[in-house]
Amino acid sequence: MKKALPALCVLGALVFLAIAIYYWTTKAGSLPSWVPGHEAGSSHIHLKHGLAALVVAIAFAVLAWFTSAKKTTSPKSTESK
Prior knowledge:
The chain has one domain. The chain is 54% helix and 0% strand. The chain is built from 2 helices and no strands. It has helices spanning 4-25, 47-68. α1 packs antiparallel against α2.
């Protein structure tokens, strides 16, 4: 289970990065009708939708980074007696 969560987070980051790129490169009229932001006949790009998807991708990447980090133990005390 420890390795599954970071892998899923990386997968989520890649998916949302692809969604962000898709929003930035596709006109609103060319988006499928089930995708948020679809506007028939529109020729503008949804920059805010792409930016939101990028923020989610970054959040998934940070979560993957933190969940994959090794836990460190505190150093033993080296006090003199």
